[in-house]
Amino acid sequence: MAELLRSWQDVAHILGAELDYADNRDHQTREEAITMRVRHRHWTIEFESRTNSKGKEQTDAYTRISCSLPGANVFSFNIFEGRLKHRLFKIMGLQDIIIGDAALDRRFIIQADEEAHLKRFLLNPMVRAGLASPYVQQLRLGQNQHPGHSQNLGQSQSPGLGSEQGQGPGQNQESSAQHGPLTHQLYGRTERRMHAKAEILAHFQLFAAALDGLYGLELIPEALPANGPKT
After folding, report:
1. Is the pLDDT of residue 65 over 60?
2. For residues 3 and 11, what is the distance between their CA atoms, to the nearest angstrom?
3. What residues pair up with 15 in beta bridges, in sequence order?
4. In the list 23, 75, 109, 143, which could disulfide-bond 117, CB 3.0-4.6 Å?
5. In whole angstroms, what is the distance from residue 187 CA to residue 51 CA?
């Protein structure tokens, strides 16, 4: 654990980020969490890496990366590694957009509710370079997850739209309004804890490139309003 924490501390120093570590345990269970918040231009990117264990057995491990954005979605997308079950889902009708990059098309299932916006976004060479990292498993733009809710890779058929059947953007907005200020979120997840400095930095570079690219195309606003929710 000491080596893992040192990796995060080194990255936090490089990026000028805030880092927190928590180790909660009782006589049966243990939960370890590393949280890092780093500013990129006007946005805050948050990393949360957790391990849950019972006795000597690890029961769950994952890392989430997120950046909350104000206002309603202009569009939603989900790019995630095409594991075997998702390839089978595709045969059954799961959307998979072909973008013309053989390596990315082979590795990822790509979904969006506005295909033209997505293809413009993925023309960005920095975004493509970020997605090409072997560490990356998911990049998603969609409705902000409510606290305590976690979405696994490729969980919904319509990216970020909140159900397996999918919803239109208007339904997303109505749902979010019932739970407070309307926000959406750039989100990623790996089904493991991040250990290597290169892995953590690769995800930061992807998120930084994605935020810059989306903002440059006027698909996301610059930053949260002063009285808006914090990441």
Report:
1. yes
2. 13
3. none
4. 75
5. 19
What digits encode the pLDDT tens for the residues 162-180?
A: 333 333 333 343 333 344 4
What pairs with residue 82 in β-bridges?
none
Confidence of residue 29 (pLDDT cuts 50, 70, 90): confident
The sign of the dihedral angle between the CA atoms of 19, 21, 68, 78 is: positive
Please report, for the chain, the start and end positions of each structural domain, with discontinuous segments joined by +: 67-216
Amino acid symbol at 26: D
Q: Is the dihedral of CA 77, 98, 166, 113 positive or negative?
A: positive
Cβ-based neighbours of 45, under 8 Å, separated by 6 or more? 37, 38, 39, 65, 66, 67, 204, 207, 208, 211, 231
Tokens of residue 60, six digits? 């769950």
